[in-house]
Design brief:
The protein is α+β, with helices and mostly antiparallel strands and 451 residues long. It is built from 15 helices and 20 strands. An 8-stranded antiparallel beta sheet has the order 13-12-9-10-11-14-19-17, sandwiched between helices. A 5-stranded parallel beta sheet has the order 3-2-1-4-5. The chain is globular and about 60 Å long. The structure holds ligand MV4.
């Protein structure tokens, strides 16, 4: 087992990793930029190293600084968390070259899944259902039109190096297609330095359902159920829940079994999430994330499995001891991502938190690095914390969420708590009756008024 883990991240996920490491008796090293010198993960870590100025490229993304921090502290492993370098295959390789264990998947799997065309090709080969579309990259407009006609309009042009919704253009007619192709290509070139695009049948009103997997790199892999992440705004997840109100036990077991088998075949190592669109009873693979995700706590709350603990043990070479039959789904969990933003305009609202009162009680968890008197810096994402509730049923979880949100006080900055107080009282949300566009329709229709 590792002696010392360097946590190459910040905020609530840095705290989350630190907690798992401490429970395993492993020493922890926090890294921080000058903007994070008062951050909670710095206070709670056994050691801490300032790695640079606030800009991420000069600190949390600065590979030489991270390696130097490992060197001077003697860390033998590094956990990247999510975002930053968590899906940078080259960084994972560099860690290996410096005899530092990267707590994450094999670089080859990070690389494959980072190329959305390669990811889809691999998923198809492994028997995972995919969205109908082009076999690979689209090289010219003639080919694009042929593919579009064979799958039927509307189609979606996607960037191979995209993901998270970046570089996507819908084409509803042949006339739209050439414009969509050239726009997607130029945006992809500008954003990712790669203008390769591919085509898919555009699904109009799907849900976003993702399957959590764990693999030990030696051919054992299990699934830990699904998370429904359909409530999103501009590709930012707002609320996630598990299980999905749209799935029944057979669908869960079927798609989970397909994904777990696929992960066994490629000898996947670590935690991963296979993303699907779900529409009219059908699953369509869109991409795979080779990292721990922000919303992992809802899976932990219904399975009782600590995913970061499992990541660390697997990275240290332990075989996966959890058998699929041992994974029991109990109850229902819902997570709200509370951001330091105006709840109507979503304008960022960093600043000093003058009063912080998180909710508590049975089945209530708050994953946050914020404390009273802490100043949220403007340099990074605006996450104040994640409120996660668990109940024996979805109804109980919703009632617990409503009660917890009414208790949750954060003064000194604006937060999106009022948005969640409204959502938890909305009939569609209470019924679980929403798709990936529901939140934007609700907000565009003035659902939050003009606060
Ligand atoms: C799609 C789609 C509809 N049809 N693919 C958005 C980000 C990336 N995960 C893929 N995304 C989508 N791919 C096809 N063929 C709609 C989206 C999409 C979306 C997906 C999940 C959650 C929220 C979304 C918001 C807008 C579009």
């Amino acid at each position: 087992m590792f002696e010392k883990i360097l946590i190459a991240n910040r905020g609530e996920i840095a705290l989350r990793i630190l907690r798992a490491a401490k429970e395993l008796g492993i020493a922890t090293v926090a890294v921080y930029s000058t903007a994070d010198k008062n951050a909670m993960h710095v206070k709670l870590a056994d050691e801490s190293v300032c790695i640079g100025p606030p800009q991420a490229r000069d600190s949390y993304l600065h590979i030489p600084a991270l390696l130097a921090a490992c060197e001077i502290t003697g860390a033998d492993a590094l956990h990247p968390g999510y975002g930053f370098l968590s899906e940078n295959a080259r960084f994972a390789e560099i860690c290996g070259e410096h005899k530092i264990t990267f707590i994450g998947p094999k670089p080859e799997h990070i690389r494959i899944m980072g190329d959305k065309i390669e990811a889809k090709r691999t998923a198809k080969r492994l028997g995972i259902p995919c969205v109908p579309g082009s076999e690979g990259a689209i090289t010219n407009d003639v080919e694009a039109l042929r593919v579009a006609k064979s799958i039927g309009f509307p189609v979606l042009v996607k960037a191979a190096s995209g993901g998270g919704g970046r570089g996507m253009k819908v084409a509803r007619t042949a006339e739209d297609l050439s414009v969509a192709l050239s726009t997607a290509r130029s945006e992809a070139k500008a954003a990712f330095g790669d203008d390769a695009v591919y085509l898919e049948k555009y699904l109009e009103k799907p849900r976003h359902i993702e399957i959590q997997v764990l693999g030990d790199g030696g051919g054992r892999a299990i699934h830990l159920g699904e998370r429904d992440c359909s409530l999103q705004r501009r590709h930012q997840k707002i609320l996630e829940e598990s299980p999905s109100p749209a799935l029944n036990a057979k669908e869960r077991a079927d798609i989970g079994g397909i994904v777990a088998k696929a992960m066994r075949e490629i000898q996947y190592l670590g935690a991963g999430t296979v993303e699907f669109l779900y529409e009219k009873g059908e699953f369509y693979f869109i991409e795979m994330n080779t990292r721990i995700q922000v919303e992992h706590p809802v899976t932990e709350m219904i399975t009782g499995i600590d995913l970061v603990n499992e990541q660390i043990k697997i990275a240290a070479g332990s075989p996966l001891l959890i058998k699929q039959k041992d994974v029991i789904f109990s109850g229902h969990a819902i997570e709200c991502r509370v951001n330091a933003e105006n709840p109507s305009t979503f304008r960022p609202s960093p600043g000093k938190v003058t009063y912080f009162h998180p909710p508590g009680g049975l089945g209530v968890r708050v994953d946050s690095a914020v404390y009273q008197g802490y100043t949220i810096p403007p340099n990074y994402d605006s996450l104040v914390g994640k409120l996660i509730v668990h109940g024996r049923s979805r109804t109980e979880a919703m009632m617990r969420l409503r009660r917890s949100l009414d208790e949750f006080i954060v003064d000194g900055i604006e937060t999106t708590i009022p948005l969640f107080r409204t959502l938890v009282r909305n009939a569609d949300i209470q019924n679980g009756d929403y798709d990936i566009h529901w939140l934007e329709r609700f907000l565009d229709a003035g659902g939050m008024g003009e606060t």
